[in-house]
Amino acid sequence: MRFTIPLRSLRLAITVLALPILAGCPGEDPTPTPDGGTSTQSVYAITTQVRASDDSQSYIIVTDSVDHTAPLSLDNATEVPGRALGVGIPKSGSLFVAGSEGPTVTRYNLTSDGRLEKGTSVSFANQGVLSIGEYQHQFQFISETKAYYFDGRNSKVIVWNPSDMSVTGAINLTGLAVNGAIQTFATLPIRRENQVIMPLGWRTTETGDIVTKVGLIVVDTTNDTAKVITKDERCGYVRDGVLGPDGMLYLATEVYGSAVRRVKGATAPPPCLLRFNPQTLEFDSSFFVELEKLVNGGTAGSLLPGPNGTVYLRVFDEKSFEVKDSTVPRALASAPAWTWWQIQLGDSPTATPAVGLPASSGSTFLFEANGRTLFTEFATDSSSTSLRELTDQSGKVTATYSGVSFSFVQLR
Q: pTM for this structure?
């Protein structure tokens, strides 16, 4: 994703928006702040990447609301070079920032007056890490003193302590790499009791074709051990998953894999829905559903957990975006032409269009904000990100800001 406009002009063009920390809302409990103060006002940290010419610059926007009629400003944002991620435990008052410029994670503490104060750092260099990228949820926080970083380049899970900012160990992931392919992690891993379940996807390095291989990493958080479970299947890029009401994990091809199928036809594996037992750590060999059969022969992908137990499938609208011979799968996956269908899971799943939710880009990230679920929509030229409401199925825009955003944390 790239756009090229002068960064100075971009910043001047963005509407200036003051972000004072207001009085607390009724019914909210005071939250201690690292500098000894307390506050009841919600505060959010949005990390966004702006690209100008050949350089990337990231900004951490601190705001007391996710509802804004004017674009959020970068003027008072914290600047971080390269592509950065801001991660952390929700409502803990701390943000951990990492990025493409090195192997370090830096802690920022939220002060009582709503500022980010830079703290200590921890380096993953001794684990072979050169830079940190991809998505927010490669960081999984188990407790105040234990967190994981899923490192695909080195096929390991790094165990670190976010309290004293130290590396405490690593879990090797044998069998993760596929020759000639790029391995990618899920944007939303599944948390279950003492498990972190991370679905995997592979695409070829040269052409971006989908590898017909399905994989999961299952980490036991009680003893910091992991199993890499892979199997060859009739489908691939099975990178999205949700727990069903039956306790089974349902996994689906992510929209990029579905876009490859739409562009390249039968030479690409069909998008699919699989079922996995998180107790026995085995795939259900009798369960295999081609997603197109759930949506009247259309192109479908990505399984997303919604509010109140809802589950959504994204379905491509052929009328909203013309697919040409020259169309590349990434452009198709990012097009604002993916509708929302609600899916009922079980032995015989069914899917129906969701009323009210407008079509949006298929590359969607979900963020939680005080009991609300928001999803991202990127501009087609990657110049801006909008947060949209999923909770009430309206899809209304709640906030817009410059750049492309892959991470969002409620600090308090």
A: 0.88
